[in-house]
Prior knowledge:
Layout: H1 14-17, E1 20-25, E2 31-35, E3 46-50, E4 59-71, E5 74-77, E6 80-83, E7 86-90, E8 95-99, E9 105-110, E10 113-121, E11 127-136, E12 141-153, E13 169-171, E14 174-177, E15 186-190, E16 196-208, H2 210-214, E17 220-233, E18 238-244, H3 251-263, H4 271-280, E19 283-286, E20 290-293, E21 296-297, H5 304-314, H6 321-333, H7 352-367, H8 369-389, E22 395-397, E23 403-405, E24 418-419, E25 422-423, E26 430-431, H9 432-451, H10 455-461, H11 464-476, E27 486-488, E28 491-493, H12 513-526, E29 528-529, E30 532-534, H13 551-558, E31 563-564, H14 568-579, H15 584-592, E32 601-602, E33 609-610, E34 618-619, E35 623-624, H16 625-650, H17 658-661, H18 669-675, H19 685-690, E36 698-699, H20 702-713
Parallel strand pairs: 1-32, 28-36
Antiparallel strand pairs: 1-2, 2-3, 3-4, 4-5, 4-12, 6-7, 8-9, 9-10, 10-11, 11-18, 12-17, 13-14, 14-15, 15-18, 16-17, 19-20, 21-35, 22-23, 24-25, 26-27, 27-28, 29-30, 30-31, 33-34
Helix pairs in contact: 4-16, 5-7, 5-16, 7-8, 7-9, 8-9, 9-10, 9-11, 12-14, 14-16, 15-16
Amino acid sequence: MSALTFDKSELGNLEYSLQREMLSTDRMGGYMSTTIVCCNTRRYHGLMVAPIDDSDRTYVLLSSLDETVIQHDQTFNLALHRFPGVYEPRGHKYITDFEYTPTPSITYRVGGVILRKEMLWIHKRTQLMIRYTLLDAHSETRLRLRPFLAFRDKHALTHANMEADGHSYPAVNGVKCRLYGSFPWLYLQTSKPGTEFIPAPDWYYNFEYLQDLARGYEGHEDLMTTGYFETELKKGESIIFSASLDEMGSTKTIEEVFAASIARRTHKIDFLSCLEHSARQFVIRRPGNRTEVIAGYPWHGVSGRQAFVSLPGITLQQDHKEDCIDVLDTQVREMQQGMFSGSASAAAAVDAPLWFFWTLQRLGEQIGGKEIWKRYGKAMKELLESYRRGIAGRIALQENGLIRTAAGDMPLTWMNSTIAGRAVTPRDGFQVEVNALWYNAVCYTLELARQEKDKAFVKEWEALPAHIENAFRELFLLPEGYLADYIDEQGAHDDIRPNMILACCLPYKPVDEQTRIDVIRTVRQHLLTPRGLRTLSPRNPLYKGSQEGSPEERDFAAKNGSVWPWLLSFYVKACFDIDGAAYLPTAEEILANFEEEIQSYGIGSIGELYDADPPYAARGAISQAWSVGAILDIYHMIQGYRAAAPKAKATKGGRKTAAAKEPAQPKTTASAEKAGQTPAGKSTAKKDAAAPKVQAPRRKSAAAEEKTKKTSKK
């Protein structure tokens, strides 16, 4: 039984069905996405959205396909479209079932007619195939298929114009269309010989996209139809509709391609198989031997930061290390002057190259440190040297060993939302997560360099980690025990944000155990939700709990409250590092919170972000790479500790194995989360010895400043 089950009685309820969106990809950058009742609610929806050249741009070619059943000279249109103030036609009332595995399928019932529709995106080809099977009928039945074409960039909208070519030209058992000369031909063909295409070019006006309107964007467009296919179907007979950038040579070829492709489809039978299937959709192969990661569907492109963060979860956890290596090799090949290019460059994302080191650490667990150094040692050293030299006049290594960023209104951390050209969360200075990643990168490179006898590098860099560690504690550690979000000329900014959790979970940590305990406690009390970590404490006056509203309101909320699932895996890792197997029950509850999520919003996947207030509604992209990667990471962390726990119990003579040592540490996270208590633990001697003598000047939080103002007024 599939993990994805849908309430058949609710399929005709648009409040239910229009909130559930499906996605299929071709692993080359193209996709099909729409709601489970095939009513497009976004400009990004379409049955064929694909690249047409070597660029990163993708285009909506085939927007939708209307099916009409004809019996006794009566027509029953099975489609569903939204126009201003009205749905027309209203084919959703004929839907009796929807299944997602092995491929999205809809069953319609019109009187005595039962028609099944199976939608299939062909992997490694820009081709959509839909098979219609007449399961039951008691009189002569005809099927009419009318394609609606857009031929426009997926971020844009199209409107009726005189330049569009509404003609159709002959192809094998079908036609080819091209609305504009700059596009390739789109071949529309069927598998049933004798199917007739009736030319009838026309514009249909004012298709309305409710999700775009709700997000504060324009949401109306016109679509062109060049005609329609029509054929008779007998009970038990099928017809396959194909839309492709390559012409199919025969009707038999269409049937063979469909049969071979659907036979290779995996069945999404449980939570894990759904996530693993979703994970595979993000890795795409492009011309020029390039392998990349799509950050999220349907509107995101390639992001260097998100690629590095998501890669371990979406590739290594399925033992697809070749995909991970191919993505990393693509980035390394395109390095210029010791730095990645594009969105992976530190000039565009200060932390992106530092995440590269973290990805290598995870890859090294499977292929070994020796192979990592052989393949990537040169790139690792060049990247570190780039930070030391300084990057783009915005990023520089300071005398205290920390990285300082000063980019003005161009935010370079992952908190990069802007409104009217200004950063929503200005963070110029020393950012906590950037310097935690910097410390981890330097330590890891030194580890491999020592193992591989690179004496010159070791001699040049070996003094830096201690320098970084001392400066990190001196600047970021606040009297309350948690870490400042960033430091600038005004001092330490103590707004409670999730970035500090990275200092507590990386393989090399610049803080001691007691600080980690205090950070985890603070994050749990202020930021932890069932869907991930908030980006700001609700006690802060800047906090915004909802993602609804205009683009500006949503951009503000995204980094001042909204919940991000990708951060959750690092929180769970930090807790496991302290409590070991004792944290298992809590981690299992965290994972269970997402099992219902794959049945709503993005079917079979995890969305980009969520509202920060209950009920934590899903927002943003319907399927996000680092969200899926994070949940898979949590799943495999749990599996690892489950496997280790019996071994620890079986150890004789009271001796603890390495896997069992961690639970003997102060029991802070698991027990306190259950009881809602504050974790307690003793400071280590290492912490006492390294305690900073000088605390960085501390800037009051916005909440504290507001309180001071009110007091002075009184």
